[in-house]
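Fig. S4 source data, part A: sequence.
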Amino acid sequence: MALPIMLIEDNPALRSALKAGLDATGKVAVVYDCASGEEALQYCFESGQQDDLPAAAIMDVQLAGVLNGIQAAVKIRGEFPRFPVVFYSIQDDDAYYRDFRKSGILSHYAYVRKSNYLLPHMIVPLVQLACQGQGFIDADIEARVQEVRRKDERSPMALLEPNEQAVARMLAQGLTNEQIAAVMGFRDKRTISRINGQIYTCWGLNDTAGDEKTARTRAALIVHTGQLLAWDASGAVWTVDEQGKRQPYSWGAARDE
């Protein structure tokens, strides 16, 4: 008996061709197809209430709408735990790998490159694998997921707690302490001063900045460059490369990135 599945793909021509090819295998039957994660989520809610949820989903990572495929799957699995999903993508955006890493998806999934697994006879075994509770990730994608993980771990933001990260971003946007306190919902603007102090400490700015205005400016530069910069007594700027070596920082390179 063919497994009932749904197909989420924002390219209508590709979606139509994939649906025809998948149905032709006789092993799966596309009972619903759409272009966005929002539509897929709504369909799952409605079909789940009628105990008619599809067995699995095949989903592009880049979709129409606000949600990408990873985000849509997380929301679906929030209502229907470990709902099987096969992700495919031709996109090589850090944001997608970051979303996948943060999703905590451990089983009932496959994540592959569209260019390597687009043919129906290659996708169907992945659907079956996901339905059996297994997990499979393309080696190239796994390498990129780990690359993004290492990049994030080296990010200055990784040294801050969530509230501190939010304050640092608003500080870098030029908001005053009063404005940040209002956005964060704090009654006392001195709370922001205390958080700023913690940010400066974590980023090693208290020892080198000399005054709060300088520390604030340097913190903003760290946010904008995404690198943990350090200033020596002469004002020279340094950073640490991937091998852990201290290197002079080039502002020209920052503009080129």
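Fig. S4 source data, part B ends here. The first helix runs from residue 12 to 25.
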